[in-house]
Write a structure and sequence with these properties.
The structure is a homodimer. By secondary structure, chain A is an all-alpha fold. Chain A has a single domain, classed as Chorismate Mutase Domain, subunit A. In chain A, about 85% of the residues lie in helices and about 0% in strands.
Chain lengths: ~100, ~100
């Protein structure tokens, strides 16, 4: 049974990976859009309170099996990518 | 307009965060399951070739706006969590 079982699980894993890829990029687009709105408002883009609120919501909805520390670590990495993308956009705006 | 616009975008971002949370944990469950199947087969759990194949598929499907290096970085972090979880499971098995 087992190679078929393993192949099936691996196919599911690939599918989850692609859904994650899609969501991570979708998230980045939203962060870019938020950056543009904030820029129009002349508001500072980095907002540690908002980051805290996002993490609290994630924590409240987390059920495992990963431990919370690992989840927070991953999300902080994902948050960082969003911020870097906003910085790139800002640099592009400054260059033109 | 803009506070309403910002709130709407932030709600969408929270929603994407929770979808990501769900998928990251779902992925971890699959990795645990794969670990159990491999253990039954007496196969080594860490498989660098499989990791390469997963990254290749991700790369082939990536369209941005994040750059590929950032995407790979995040996925490598996500892969690490899965491996650590398998190690924990193995330790638990060894303790009983």
């Amino acid at each position: 049974m087992s190679n078929k079982e393993l192949d099936g699980l691996r196919n599911q894993l690939d599918d989850v990976n692609l859904q994650l890829l899609h969501l991570i990029n979708q998230r980045a687009e939203l962060v870019q859009e938020i950056g543009r709105v904030k820029e129009k408002q002349g508001v500072n883009r980095y907002d540690p309170v908002r980051e805290r609120t996002m993490l609290d919501l994630i924590e409240a909805n987390h059920q495992g099996p990963l431990d919370l520390g690992s989840i927070k670590h991953i999300f902080k990495e994902i948050f960082k990518l969003g911020l870097e993308l906003q910085k790139d956009d800002q640099k592009k705006t400054l260059l033109v």
